[in-house]
Structures are given as structure tokens and as C-alpha cells.
Request: fold
Amino acid sequence: MIGRGWSSVVAALAGVAVLACGEPRPGEVVLRISGGASEAPGDSVVVARGGDTIVVRSAELVLREVQLQLVRTGECEEEEDERCAMLASGPARYALPLGADAIALDPVAAVSDTYGTLQLEIYRATPERDTAFLASHPEVAGSSVRASGTFSRAGVRQDFVFTSDFNEVQELELPAPLVVADGRVSPLVLGVDVAAWFLSTDGTALIDPATATPGGPNAARVHDNVRMSLGVRVPSSP
Reply:
């Protein structure tokens, strides 16, 4: 015969077992970030127009507050986080793969629902706000975008390091709603077309990266190119 104390323990364990079996696991979202416009493997992006060539060998973005919005709601606000799925809070520095590869963020639990927009902030880190982050990544202090490589014009090749200091929230509408279901992993890809960063307005000429740093004559043009280079897609499998 089981005593009253053991009966309570057995009942409690039975309740835990029922919860474990009866409650489905929440859905998860895995975000991957890619920086190459090509499906071929490689460690650089090469863009040529006329006799000019840009070779981008590294490209980085500083992002924070990467969130999925439900289709029936608007912009994610700090006081209303329950209506959004936070994929990465940040700030974080992302070195963009420039070939067919992508970096994968850790899976994040998300409420089972339908999501329609990816919201993120291209973020300028400053010592006043981001001391700990900049202690690990001092090279991005005061900048949100960084790229390096070579620029060739009229047979003259020069190395460049490009930075931009803009700070703004982007909302990227998903091409199709992302349905997150209990017990399933839903993949999402943020693509950054680095090859478009240094193109002229009509796409027929290259911009010298040295003229596009903060205060330069082409800073606004490249700012727009970076902003428009972001896109999101929902692959068929993780």
C-alpha cells in the first residue's frame, strides 16, 4: 500500500508526464544571413562596369532588434514585444559570406502564428551606448556598414576600406507569409546583395568607395544602395 506522502509524489510526477506528452513544443525560427549574389562558392564579390572593377573581399553589417512581425500587427515596439518574435537583439556584427554560403543564427522559439515582415535596425555603435560590444569589435565604432577590397579604374588599382554611419530601422516584407507551427523549425534567409553597393543610380557605372564614406559626394547614393540591397525569402527547407 502506498502511503499518503508517496501518493502525492506519484500524482505530481504523473502530472508532469501528462504535460510533457500533451503540450506541443513551440515553433522555432532559424534565420540565415547571406551576402553573395552568386550561387557559386567563393570568398569575394567581383563587379565590373566598362573598364572599372570592384573586388569586395569583406563586408560587415552591425544589426540589432531583428524581429518578425505578425501579419495582423504593425511595427514592433519595445513595449509590445509579445506581438513580435525576436530573432536577435544585438547589437551584433555580422561578417557576410560572399559566396553561396550563409551564416545561421541560433534557433529561436516563436509563438505559433503567421508572420509577414522582418524588421531590423542597421545600427551605428557608439562608445557611449555600446561599451561592451565595442570592446570586442573596436573596428566598427561609429559605423554600421563596413567593406574592404580593391577598386580599379583606368588601370590603376587601389585598396579601399569603406564605412557608413547611418542608423535606421528597415522593414522587409516577406514574399509569402511565414507560418510557424508547434514542433516545427521554420527557415528564413536575409540576403544582402553586396554586389549592388557601389553601383551608380542606373547601374551602368561603378562608384569609387573612397567617395562614399561619411561626408563624401556619393555617401547618400551608397547608403540607398545598402538599404535596398536587403531582401528576405522563405526557403522550402532549413
The longest helix spans residues 4-22. Confidence is low (pLDDT under 50) at residues 1-24. The helical segments are 4-22, 131-136, 219-228.
